[in-house]
Amino acid sequence: SVPLALLISLSISGLMVYRRSHRGIYLADLDVAFQRKEIYPVFQPIVDASSNQPLGYEVMARWDHPVMGAISPNSFIPLMERFGRLDTLLTELVKQCQGQVPTGCYLSLNLSGEQLTQSFRDPIQFVQSLLSKLQIDANQLMIEITEREALDYENPKLIATLNRLREMGVTLAFDDFGTGHNGIGCLKAFAPDYIKIDKSYVHTLNGDAVQKPVLEAIIQLAKSMNIGIIAEGVETEGQRQFLLSRGVKRQQGYLLGRPGNLQTANAAEDR
Ligand code: C2E
Ligand code: CA
Ligand code: CA
Ligand code: CA
């Protein structure tokens, strides 16, 4: 059947990605992909859910491979991270964002804590060069700090970098809050401007009675620490309303707008 064939081809291409990456061919593929513009940004709005006004746009990387088709960021971002290509990615995405940021809106970029401590020799200068390429002010840039491994919030270099970014006027958000390692400890070590509540918590509003108190606790925690909240993965009107009832106005998700190009990024009804 078609689904079975699809499954098989998907797992074969998954294996290929894995094997190729271990033979070192994948790195060349990555560089070719950048040259051929197979890697490009899409934009997902962050919306004031009480008025449906877009506040900003998060940049998400996409890779359309000529043979393998669309490759998920969940598989190529870790590879780029391993091969030290995340800064190339960011530079390329930003190049393709030039002159596109809608007035009055901010742009939100995903950066890993590791990038900020290890990959960039001078993270502040790097961010400054991004701003000048984008021709936006620091206060129109949000950085979402994502982390796959434990984020080392005791690392004085990371804390210093975050503080300097904030002094520049850049808005800082901790991504995927509540998953993995980014917990209460890192909020205490460095209070970001925002946390982004991971979609897995938002989706518990579909009926997971056990997890819902955790979502409520995260909201309470952020409020008590005076940290702003952005909810990710809002897919249903029920989720939107519940979050609004808890004062979480800044929302993002398929209900409010799918990742797309900037002209249609906020037209959720188009899809
Ligand atoms: P993330 O930063 O947590 O981004 C949210 C992910 O959820 C995105 O997946 C987005 O397309 C998806 N999403 C948005 N709204 C909804 C919704 O309502 N329902 C559901 N089910 N999903 C929704 P995507 O684009 O596949 O990206 C996956 C992850 O890859 C991102 O998670 C982020 O950690 C990473 N990533 C994507 N682009 C970049 C990038 O340019 N740089 C870096 N460093 N990481 C990136
Ligand atoms: Ca993000
Ligand atoms: Ca993430
Ligand atoms: Ca997430």
Automatic annotation (TrEMBL):
List the Gene Ontology MF annotations in alphabetical order. cyclic-guanylate-specific phosphodiesterase activity
Q: Which UniProt keywords apply?
A: Membrane, Transmembrane, Transmembrane helix
Q: Would the keyword RNA-binding be found if you checked this record's keyword annotation?
A: no
Domain EAL stretches: 23-271
Asked whether the UniProt record includes Amino-acid biosynthesis among its keywords, one would answer no
Protein name as catalogued? EAL domain-containing protein
Taxonomy-wise, where does this protein's organism fall, top ranks first?
Bacteria, Pseudomonadati, Pseudomonadota, Gammaproteobacteria, Alteromonadales
What fragment of the full-length protein is this? 234 to 504 of 504
